[in-house]
Amino acid sequence: MHRRRNLRRPISTITLLRHAHALHNLAAYYFYRKNIPEYLKIRAQIMDEHNGDPGLSPIGVAEALSCRYLIDAITTRTGKVPRIFCSPSRRTQETAQLIADKLPIILVPGLVERHWGPYETPEIAEGQDIMEHLGHIHQLKRDPHYSVWEVQSLAHKFEELRSEARMLYAQAKQGPILVVSHGETLRLTAPLLQGPFAYETAEVNDMFSYPSFQNCVPRCIPIYA
Known about the structure:
By secondary structure, the chain is an alpha/beta fold. The chain is built from 10 helices and 5 strands.
């Protein structure tokens, strides 16, 4: 007995990519070893040295260069060169530039990193709870593209995400796109792109149950007519 195969072919794709390893991620060595004071000290030093918006580490540069195949892969699969949408943070721009080579990059302010408090992935939420208790929560807000979202309510942040997902879905229907952003932003946006009008119907629980994104590990979402 043969299984029925889904013969629908996507008209386009959205490829989601978390930025490569950034300089401030070097401090994570101490975080995962529960040495929070040293973690805060090194992270703060890195943030201060880079005006709150650090770029890629040498590890990150190598990660981003290893993803240069994506442009050719998307072009081969869809027959069109993808357009690249990117968060304005330095680490996402550097990732996109290394992948894109000479292709233009479209900056989207709504793709920035946001603070979701208790809704974060467990390891991030734990770190934020510890730092807030120690009076160092401001260290998470040094990115100038990041702190603007801190004064907004969770409800407003959800609506911003839905708006960005609506825009990305509309853009993808015109041709394939590559989106370079931050782990939590992508994790919460992905469920909003899982079908027509998903950006309107997806529930908050759907968004927060989506798997986390790893540095420079792409996920492709098909777009159907």
